[in-house]
# Entry
Amino acid sequence: MTFQHYMGTPKVIWLKCGNQPRQRIVELLLTIRGEVEAFVNNPNSACLEAYDTSRQE
# Structure
């Protein structure tokens, strides 16, 4: 049995949009795709907060 050992900071994408249908979550992630890619490639980043600015409160 082989295990791949990952060293590094865990990464969290915090979606601040409340309970939403799956399609809305997909749309939000696609909207911030560039930021997610930059976040994943930055070894010094640990948390990316994503806000749904289309929500009316």
